[in-house]
Amino acid sequence: MSVADQLSKVVDKTGRLIDLCLALQEENELLKRENESQKKTVLGSDDRIKDLEEKLRVLTLARSLEGMPSNELGMSEKTLDIKQKITEFVREIDKCIVLLKK
Q: For 83-92, what is the mean pLDDT?
């Protein structure tokens, strides 16, 4: 095999490697974009989960306040429990205000 033939094969193989490299770079960019999209979806889902958990907590608390029978609890116990729940709400609101200020 002559040097010219060998050189021609090297040039052909180099061309194929360049084409393959370009194809892999395009695929890599596509996968990066897809990965970013998936990350955004996960973050959105995490936010949605947090919102739903907070709504569930508030709903549970509201139902616990609704469901207190006045004949089973003395007025002072009922008042104390409601004050504690209100205090808990205020703490949660304060935490939210701190987060909003950031």
A: 84
More confident residue, 96 or 16: 16
Q: Under 8 Å CB-to-CB from 85, ≥6 apart: which residues?
A: 61, 64, 65
| Entry pTM | 0.49
- Alpha-carbon distance of 15 to 22, in angstroms, equals 11
Give the integer Cα–Cα distance in Å for 72 and 69. Answer: 6
Under a CB-based contact definition with an 8 Å cutoff, are residues 65 and 82 in contact? yes
Alpha-carbon gap, residue 59 to 54, rounded angstroms? 8
Instruction: Dump pLDDT digits (tens) for 50-79.
Output: 888 988 888 887 777 666 555 454 556 667
Evaluated on CA atoms 42, 43, 48, 49, the torsion sign reads: positive
Q: What CA–CA distance (Å, rounded) separates 85 from 91?
A: 10
